[in-house]
Amino acid sequence: MLTVVHQESQANQYTPAAVGGSMLDELAREGARAMLAAALQAEVAAYIDAHAHEVDEDGRRLVVRNGSHEPRQVATAAGAVDVRAPRVNDKRVDEVTGARRRFASAILPAWARKSTGVAEVLPLLYLHGLSSGDFVPALEQFVGSAAGLSSSTVTRLTQQWQDEARAFAARSLAEVDYVYLWVDGIHVKVRLEQDRICLLVMIGVRADGTKELVALADGFRESAESWADLLRDCKRRGMRAPVLAVGDGALGFWAAVRDVFPDTKAQRCWFHKIANVLAALPKSAHPSAKAALAEIWNAEDKDHAERAAKAFGAEYGTKWPKAAAKITDDLEVLLRFYDYPAEHWIHLRTTNPIESTFATVRLRQRITKGPGSRAVGIAMAFKLIESAQRRWRAVNAPHKVALVRAGARFKNGVLIERADDQNGGDQLAS
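^ that's the sequence the OP posted. Answer follows.
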């Protein structure tokens, strides 16, 4: 049976917990077991059909259904679901090892006893278009939830999440201080429109070292105007200028931030830069180029990084000048992270918090239908980030974020003194 367990600690801060929780619990109660059973049956049937041609000397199939396993419980955010997985009798023998082959469920691994929350899966399902083909990727994250998904329930949920997204976008930022900022433009298909949604995403690091979503907005091809509108809105709501922003060099963001927050420094994302460099090189040169680039971004200090960059330009500049220029021309903004605490370098070199959050959606956006409208797409993305945010950890050495905001100066990651120290005698303790 399904037992509902309310998790008040994870309640959304923009909507009364009782409203959102009861709706999600209702979905889980109605559909978890049925969806899981159907998905497991379909998975086993597909496995058996795939090997139907394999028979023994007497013409009997080597892979057949063989009843069911003993029931077991899998914990979910909405409660415990009783699972009775179908059993497969696989008589095939591995020619190399001599061991019997075994069916292993991708939906429900033998070791699985716990899953992530319902609130993470439903927005993901909606971004995927709620098609039957999305059962498996959804169930890889959550065991059961969507079989009882009625149109009226979907309507209520999507409206609720749109209201939450609007409340989030209108909140005051006067009491929050974002010292670091990651920015990126994420493209998601929209089922009812020709163009894709361009989501302008900003994730920040507060002065206490914690990470959180700063803003999520509908942009137009990541244009400077779209980014400027978003930044001006954030400034109007009380946002201070971040000390450092991290993003892709192709973003219209950089022109916008120079206009709205001219004191904010720029750090180009190495994840995007490496992809850009490799795109300008033949595939045969990729392995050596990746190793050479790693010598730059992973150098022990700025001096070594600059020497590695010079070596990269000398080695690749003759044959592939465009690829080399992508590093040498942008070297200042690629190596700016060295001017901040060494513990923060791993966080400041890339836009990984954004990339990892949207990885699942990005991987499947080409083959799914997408959300039904721009407003719903934004709301679903908001809920996806909101759920992921609960697992974000603070940056390394979180106490040093406040030093960065206070104007402390760092050389090769080591604290030297405050930038505003006129006497030159006051040293900050690390």
